[in-house]
Amino acid sequence: MRFCRYQLSDQSTGIGLVVEDRIVPLQDIDPALPTDMDSLMAMQSAQLERLAAGCNLPGLSGSVKLLAPLAAPEKVVCVGLNYRDHAIETGAEIPSEPVVFNKFPSALIGPGDTIELPAESKRVDYEAELVVVIGKTARHVSEDEAMEYVFGYCCGNDVSARDWQKGTPGGQWLLGKTFDTFAPLGPYLVHKSVVPDPGKLRVQLRLNGETMQDSTTEQLIFSIPQVIAHITQVVTLRPGDVIYTGTPPGVGDARTPPVYLSAGDVCEVEIEGLGILRNECK
């Protein structure tokens, strides 16, 4: 099951089931179904199964804009240096435990939205990432039970201002990662039931059609259960919170010569089974 948030030409918004190339509003399937993503995530698996009735319904017609699948997550948690080859290409030591930082929710944008390149940075970089969406409150979760707390997955782009992240006193990871528009997310929220093994997904990023990153989540140093268990030792994760799980090698800052984002560039993050997240820079 793939879900989305959408906006119509009259500015009204809704939640839809994505069936092939069409969007079926949940309210067309059953008026009693949720009208927001938080309520949808609270449904039990057995309840979600009835959404299959929407597969034969017509989709929306006219102008439809996809929004970020989650409107306002309480937390946007990120894991750095979580692919061995990426750590090596940056010259960093292989971490012995997850490197955790965050972005503010104000950085979130959806598919088709614009990545705004700030005048304050000359070294803005891309990072394709698998994003985990938490489905129920998680605190002190073990690795064995961690996947029970996952609702689904999205494509994400951990856009990063490297001159702020690395070139300022002390290294400003937070500020370098959380400029407005620096957390593209989407295009869909894909339920975990249709992702048999999130540890075996191909992750790609194309910049203006050229493949810059191409790896699989098999290369993660710390698995999704390990990451969730580690984070919930410290902080309570709530439904709708998202975890950007790390990026594979091929980032622009590690290339010779370096490649940074410019106005007019188009980033496409594609993750196997999750769709393509496309954003233009300006």
From TrEMBL:
Task: Provide the GO MF annotations for this entry.
Answer: isomerase activity; metal ion binding; ureidoglycolate lyase activity
Residues of the Fumarylacetoacetase-like C-terminal domain: 75-280
Q: What InterPro entries does this protein's entry cite?
A: FAH, Fumarylacetoacetase-like_C, Fumarylacetoacetase_C_sf
Could you say which EC number(s) this protein's record lists?
4.3.2.3
Question: Carries keyword Lyase?
Answer: yes
Q: In its UniProt record, which GO terms are filed under biological process?
A: carboxylic acid metabolic process
Q: Does the keyword rRNA processing apply?
A: no
Alphabetical UniProt keywords: Lyase, Metal-binding
Protein family membership: Belongs to the FAH family.
Q: State the name under which the record lists this protein.
A: Ureidoglycolate lyase
Q: What is the originating organism of this protein?
A: Roseimaritima ulvae
